[in-house]
Amino acid sequence: MRCINLAKALRTYCDTYFIIPNQYKFPQQLLNTYNLPYITVPKTKNMGDEVTYYPDTINVVIVDMADYEHVQNPEKLSLFFHKLIDRNVRVFLIDGMFQDKLICHDYPFFSTVIQPYVGAEKDTAPNSQEWIAGGAYAILGDAYRDCPRRTTSKQASNVLISFGGSDPQEITVALAEVLSQNRKQFQNQLVRFVLGPDMALTTKQKITGILNDLENAEIIKAPDSLKPLLTEADVAILGSGAASRYEAACCGVPALITSIVPSHDHQCRLHQSYGCTEYLGHYNELSETSWCRALSNLIDDFQKRQSMSLAGQKLIDGRGVERLAVEIGKILA
Fold first, then answer.
1. For residue range 54-96, what is the model confidence (pLDDT) as tens digits?
2. Rounded CA gap, 237 and 175, in Å?
3. Which of 32, 108, 127, 152 has the fewest Cβ atoms nearer than 10 Å?
């Protein structure tokens, strides 16, 4: 979704198109929904060969490939980047940060590297002509622009739990068990569990079974946006994915966060240093007691929740994608 949000913001400065291998139908359907233009290219053995089919009119390519697969195997993209450079295409790379970034030793010199994350400006400068980094450029959807100032409730009665689209580690299952085993401790809270659109059926069944007899638990299936849920939440429990952490901060929701992969540890600690989250460590290091203590302490500490809420909305204002589009527009001018 962040590419869609960025493409919408960039239309003020340039013509934008998505390039999609023609065998991928869902992205085409999604872009049609948002009325965003795209170009399809034939299926190829690798992304390097794909470049052969790019129209000659394309002179800038924004690449967002900072996912786990490519971070672990950065050489897969090396040929792709070199072929783009050979065609005199200016490459803008949206990269991760610190241990979670993509760039490896045989990548070419990029026009621009973009790291739209809290604390990314403290990373080592990349091999690029331009560098855009920091939480000021966090890419969120239109719904998060200029969120109203949060008023912290004295009583924290609404808890939101979300671990992304699929939660393959089944952290949501573990938290459902924590609530089930400690139902008396959290009986005054409505606890909402978000089941992402790509969550495995077996995982959903486990969660449903555990929460079946809990009156204060609510299951939310594949919401279009977390915004309405965050607006009502007093506390959130989230994974280390940047999008949900920044959305919570923008809405002024204090968040307990846990890292899903070890490479996220440093960025979670950086985010915590700004005062809007409490980082609990890697998920497999957390016991039932650890979860209960952290959640109970935050629920009971009104001053801390208020402080975290103010810090979050100061850090993320929902206008990062607009700032990023302006900076890209300046570079393209």
1. 999 899 999 987 666 677 777 778 889 999 999 999 999 999 8
2. 9
3. 32
